[in-house]
C-alpha cells in the first residue's frame, strides 16, 4: 500500500497510546479484535469507525482497562498499562459513553466533581473547576449547577457528560459514540461545540463512531475497522484518497470528493489576493478591492465565505448565485478570494 | 349493636384498661421494630452479597423465599418447638418473616441501577466499594425502603399471632376478644394495630425522604 504522506497534524509530538499486536478474545470465544497495532500521537483526535461489532469499542475500552487484552500490549504514555493501577489510570482518563450514565441522585455540579473528588482536590478548587466547565459547555453555572440530570434535555445531559469527563484535566479522553443517541440537530451542534473545545485543550482523544461523516469531521486520524481488523489508519485525506481496501471504499461511499470538500477549510484553497487583508478597517477594503464587503450590508450576505467554512459551502454558494468566485471574509474584512477553478485545481492535485 | 356503638364501647374498654393497653402496645411495637431492624441489618448486606455473586444469589434468594412461603401462623408455630414460649421465639419468627421483602427489594434495587451508570462510575476510576456506596445504594434507596415498609406493615399484622406462643402484644386482646365474643376488647386491640401500621409506614417514608434528600426529583427521566 502506498500512502501519500499528507497528514493534517504537523507537530512532531510523541506517542501517547500505542497498541502492539493486541488481540482480545472474550470468554465466550468471540474474537473482538485480532493483532492490532497502531500509535496515537499526543494531543490528536483519533476516530475509530466501522460497522457494529467490528471491535472499535473493544479497542477503546482496552485503553482504560475496562477490558484487558488477551495477547499483545497496550502502552499508555510509554508504560505497559497492565503494570499501571487500574483505578489511577481511569482517573487520568476521561470517559464519555453513548448512554451518558449521569448519576441521577447527584446534582449536575456533583456529577462533574466526581473525579476531582476521587482525586481529593480542595473543595474551592473543585467548585471553581465545576463553574469553569459549565461555562465551557455554554451552561450558565448559576442555573445548572444545582439541578438534577433528569431535568435536562438529552443534549444538555451529554454536555454534562463531557464536562464530567474533562473535570480533572485528563491526558486522554475516550468517547464511545458520545453523540450517537442525540437527534441530528443536537448532534451537529455538539460536534461543532466539541470541535471548538478540542482546539482549546491539548487532550489526546479517542472517539468511537459508526458514522463515517462524523469520523471525517472530528478526526485528525481515522482508524477504520472491519470485523476484528484494523483495515486502514490515516488522516481523513489519506483515507479518502487512497482507500486501502474495497471495504473502505464502500464504507466511504460514492461521494468521496464531496466528503473531501466537506473537510477542507476555505483557508486551504483561497488565494490571498487582497493586499489590504491585514488592515482592520472595512473602508480600506472598499476603496481597493473589487470584492467589496459593502455588499454585505445590502442584504446579499450569502455571497461570501469565511476562512473556516468548508469548501462544499463555498461551492454551494457559487452554484446558488451563479458565480465563479467568492470573497473570503473574516471579521468584516476581505482576506482573500476563492474561485471554482482553484477548487477544481486543488482536487485534481490530489487535495494537497 | 351498631358500628358507632361498637366503636364507643371499644373506646370505653380502652380507657378503662389503658395501663394494660400501653403494656401490650409497647410489646407489640417492640416485636415489630426489633424484628424489622434485625431484618434490615441482615437482609441488606445479604442482598448486596447476592448481587455480587450468582451462586450466593441463588442461595440467598431461595432461603428468603422459603421463609416467606411458610404461612404466618406456621412460622410462629415452627419456632415454638425450638425456642419454647415467650417474647424471644415470637421475635425470631417475625424476624424471619421480615427478611424476604427487604432482601428481594435490595437485590432488585441494586440490579435496577442502570448498567451504563455503573459503567460510567467504573470508567471514571471508582473502586467497587465506592460504586456500591456512592452510586448503587443511594440509587436503590427508594426500592429498598419499599421493602422495609412492606416488612414493617406486614409484621404489625403478623405480630398479633405472637399471642399463640406467649409473645404478648395487642394479639392478647384481639384473640381473647374473639374467644370470649368480647367485641369491644377485640376492636380496642385491632384498631390501634391498623393505626400503628399506617404510622410506621409513614415513619419509614419520612426516613427514606431524609436519606435520599431531594435527590429524586419528581420529573420523569427526560432521556433514556
From TrEMBL, chain A:
Subcellular location per the Swiss-Prot or TrEMBL entry: Cell membrane
Annotated ranges, domain ABC transporter: 17-252
Enzyme Commission designation: 7.3.2.6
Keywords annotated in UniProt: ATP-binding, CBS domain, Molybdenum, Nucleotide-binding, Transport
Keyword check for Transport: yes
Keyword Transport: yes
Main location: membrane
SMART domains tied to this protein: AAA
Stated name of the protein: Molybdate/tungstate import ATP-binding protein WtpC
TrEMBL record, chain B:
Record field: transmembrane: 29-51, 72-100, 131-148, 160-181, 187-207
GO annotation, biological process: glycine betaine transport; transmembrane transport
Domain ABC transmembrane type-1, residue spans: 25-204
Pfam family, one: BPD_transp_1
Topological category with respect to the lipid bilayer: Multi-pass membrane protein
Alphabetical list of InterPro entries matching this protein: ABC_transp_perm/SBD (IPR051204), MetI-like (IPR000515), MetI-like_sf (IPR035906)
PROSITE patterns per UniProt: ABC_TM1
Localization per Swiss-Prot or TrEMBL: Cell membrane; Membrane
Keyword Transport: yes
Keywords: Membrane, Transmembrane, Transmembrane helix, Transport
CDD domains: TM_PBP2 (cd06261)
Transmembrane recorded as keyword: yes
GO CC aspect terms: plasma membrane
Record-stated family: Belongs to the binding-protein-dependent transport system permease family.
Protein name, as recorded: Binding-protein-dependent transport systems inner membrane component
Organism: Natronococcus amylolyticus DSM 10524
Amino acid at each position: 500500500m502506498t500512502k501519500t504522506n499528507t497528514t493534517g497534524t504537523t507537530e512532531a509530538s510523541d506517542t501517547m497510546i500505542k497498541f502492539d499486536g493486541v488481540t482480545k478474545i472474550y470468554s465466550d470465544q468471540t474474537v473482538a479484535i485480532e493483532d492490532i497495532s497502531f500509535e496515537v500521537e499526543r494531543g490528536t483526535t483519533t476516530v475509530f469507525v466501522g460497522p457494529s461489532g467490528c471491535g472499535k469499542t473493544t479497542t477503546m475500552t482496552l485503553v482504560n482497562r475496562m477490558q484487558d487484552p488477551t495477547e499483545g500490549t497496550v502502552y499508555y504514555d510509554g508504560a505497559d498499562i497492565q503494570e499501571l493501577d487500574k483505578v489511577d489510570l481511569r482517573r487520568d482518563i476521561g470517559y464519555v459513553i453513548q448512554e451518558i450514565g449521569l448519576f441521577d441522585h447527584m446534582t449536575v455540579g456533583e456529577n462533574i466533581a466526581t473525579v476531582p473528588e476521587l482525586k481529593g482536590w480542595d473543595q474551592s478548587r473543585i467548585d471553581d473547576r465545576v463553574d469553569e466547565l459549565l461555562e465551557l459547555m455554554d451552561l450558565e453555572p448559576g442555573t445548572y449547577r444545582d439541578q438534577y440530570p433528569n431535568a435536562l434535555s438529552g443534549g444538555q445531559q451529554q454536555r454534562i457528560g463531557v464536562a464530567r469527563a474533562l473535570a480533572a484535566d485528563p491526558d486522554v479522553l475516550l468517547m464511545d459514540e458520545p453523540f450517537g443517541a442525540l437527534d441530528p440537530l443536537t448532534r451537529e451542534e455538539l460536534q461543532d461545540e466539541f470541535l471548538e473545545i478540542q482546539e482549546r485543550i491539548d487532550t489526546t482523544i479517542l472517539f468511537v463512531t459508526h458514522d463515517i461523516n462524523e469520523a471525517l469531521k472530528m478526526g485528525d486520524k481515522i482508524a477504520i475497522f472491519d470485523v476484528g481488523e484494523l483495515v486502514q489508519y490515516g488522516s481523513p485525506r489519506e483515507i479518502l484518497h487512497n482507500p486501502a481496501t474495497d471495504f473502505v471504499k464502500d464504507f466511504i461511499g460514492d461521494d468521496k470528493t464531496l466528503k473531501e470538500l466537506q473537510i477542507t477549510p476555505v483557508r486551504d484553497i483561497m488565494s490571498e489576493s487582497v493586499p489590504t487583508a491585514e488592515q482592520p478597517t472595512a473602508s480600506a477594503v472598499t476603496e481597493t478591492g473589487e470584492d467589496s464587503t459593502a455588499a454585505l450590508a445590502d442584504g446579499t450576505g450569502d455571497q461570501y465565505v469565511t476562512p473556516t467554512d468548508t469548501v462544499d459551502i463555498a461551492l454551494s454558494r457559487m452554484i446558488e448565485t451563479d458565480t465563479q468566485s467568492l470573497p473570503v471574509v473574516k471579521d468584516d474584512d476581505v482576506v482573500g478570494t476563492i474561485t471554482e477553478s482553484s477548487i477544481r485545481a486543488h482536487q485534481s492535485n490530489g487535495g494537497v | 349493636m351498631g358500628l358507632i356503638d361498637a366503636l364507643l364501647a371499644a373506646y370505653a374498654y380502652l380507657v378503662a384498661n389503658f395501663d394494660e393497653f400501653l403494656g401490650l402496645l409497647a410489646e407489640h411495637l417492640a416485636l415489630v421494630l426489633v424484628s424489622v431492624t434485625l431484618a434490615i441489618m441482615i437482609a441488606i448486606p445479604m442482598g448486596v452479597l447476592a448481587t455480587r455473586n450468582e451462586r450466593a444469589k441463588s442461595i440467598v434468594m431461595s432461603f428468603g423465599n422459603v421463609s416467606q412461603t411458610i404461612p404466618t401462623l406456621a412460622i410462629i408455630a415452627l419456632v415454638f418447638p425450638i425456642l419454647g414460649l415467650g417474647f424471644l421465639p415470637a421475635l425470631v419468627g417475625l424476624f424471619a418473616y421480615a427478611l424476604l421483602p427487604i432482601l428481594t427489594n435490595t437485590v432488585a434495587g441494586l440490579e435496577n441501577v442502570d448498567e451504563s451508570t455503573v459503567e460510567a462510575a467504573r470508567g471514571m476510576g471508582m473502586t467497587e466499594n465506592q460504586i456500591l456506596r456512592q452510586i448503587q445504594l443511594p440509587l436503590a434507596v427508594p426500592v429498598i425502603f419499599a421493602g422495609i415498609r412492606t416488612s414493617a406493615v406486614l409484621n404489625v399484622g403478623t405480630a398479633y399471632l405472637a399471642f399463640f406462643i406467649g409473645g404478648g402484644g395487642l394479639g392478647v386482646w384481639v384473640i381473647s376478644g374473639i374467644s370470649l365474643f368480647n367485641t369491644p376488647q377485640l376492636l380496642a386491640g385491632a384498631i390501634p394495630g391498623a393505626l400503628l401500621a399506617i404510622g410506621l409506614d409513614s415513619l419509614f417514608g419520612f426516613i427514606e425522604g431524609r436519606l435520599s434528600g431531594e435527590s429524586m426529583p419528581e420529573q420523569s427521566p427526560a432521556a433514556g
